[in-house]
Amino acid sequence: MKKRLFKSLKNLIVIFGITFVLLEIVLAIYIRVAEIPIELPTYTFQNTHNFWYDLDENFGTLHLPNDVYRQKKYCFDAVYETNSNGFRDAEREQQSTNRRVVALGDSFTEGIGVNVEIRLTNLLESTTKIPHLNFGLAGNFGPTQYWMLYKTHAIHYTHDAVLVGILPSNDFIDDDYEIALKVGGDRYRPFLHGNYPNYEVVYHSDSIHKSKARPRDIRFINKFLKNFTHAYNMYYYLRTRQTMSTISQDQVLDVSKIPSYFNFNTQQFGRLRYTLEQIKKLAGNRPVMVYTIPIEKEITAYREHGKNPLGSDLTKLCEVLQLEYLDLLPKTDRFTEAEYKNLFLSCDGHWSEAGNAFAKQEIESFFSYYQ
Question: Which of 68, 90, 159, 191 could form a disulfide with 177 if both were Cys (CB 3.0 to 4.6 A apart)?
Fold first, then answer.
């Protein structure tokens, strides 16, 4: 009886094992063929936790110090390493007699999806021989946070110029208190509350320790499944999509109302204006270089209707504020459809190696600081 039971159990384990292996093979093929934008197993323990958390009392989002995280999707495999302050950058001394640029921005500035040697700021540093201190951060990071990071942290590093990357497809939303309250109110992030120019900096929570994005212990089984199976990552991808689809329509923006190059209101532009004004004040006599980044669908839309309201409004604003402004959207006119699509990672939407090279070339040739 015991032998029969043992044999049945053994057969069951073998069947389960074969089924799981077949499932992994099918998922591995399906994810790549269907281009599902999920993280893939690395078969190491390099990404057993999140890459970013809410760690800073002033600007919220930050990485763990001296950390290593590997992100792998079907179209890239990148390793992210942070310095002792939690930024994806080399270790920098606060005081230096050399020329240095402080770079502010979100995940495009940080270089999500590519290794550092082909990232925008590293390309600029390589050709100009001017250190570019990269303070870009992923994790819903907007212009209010650029300003707060510069004010409370980056300003303490000697530098003679500031480079600010604006991503219209995200930044208007990331800076909107009401939108974030509905879909991300359990995060700890600063927002401008009020009307231009009378704002106060507010947070959804009175303590950073109440944020959902805090470091926590992860069970070994979860670490193992995340790093060694497609099934686990697919499950979490589908669960996240299901969660978003069940959020009622009045909690999220209709597609036609999503802010971008072509769709923003007075309040959203006012907050962007205010943050640029504050960065300019802090910078003093240092040149502040501002550039805007279009995503793939905005380039497509621009080619269809030829309008660029944000570029026009920012050109006028930067003239008033005495900021140099580079709009990368019309700079894409020279590309064929295949070429501008190649500027972005197909599984992620961030700049590819070609995208970073394109931005580097335009920035270096446009801003007078580099001449």
Answer: 191
Q: Are 145 and 60 in contact (CB under 8 A)?
A: yes
Three-class SS of 71-121: EEECCEEEEEECCCCCCCCCCCCCCCCCCCEEEECCHHHHCCCCCHHHCHH
> For 177-230, how does the pLDDT look when each residue is reduced to its tens digit (9 = 90+)?
888 877 767 889 999 999 999 999 999 888 999 998 898 888 888 888 888 899
In the Cβ-directed half-sphere of 175, how many Cα atoms lie within 13 Å? 33
Beta-ladder partners of 70 = 79
Instruction: Find the largest Cα–Cα distance for the chain.
Output: 88
Span 93-102, mean pLDDT? 97
CA angle 202, 206, 210 (to 5 degrees): 125
Torsion sign, CA atoms 265, 189, 251, 298: positive
Closest C-alpha among 226, 228, 208, 210 to residue 218? 226
Name residues whose C-beta falls within 8 Å of residue 300's C-beta, 6 or more positions apart in sequence: none
- The predicted-structure confidence for 1-24, as pLDDT tens digits, reads as follows 666 766 677 777 878 778 888 888
pTM of the model: 0.91
The confidence score (pLDDT) of residue 321 equals 95
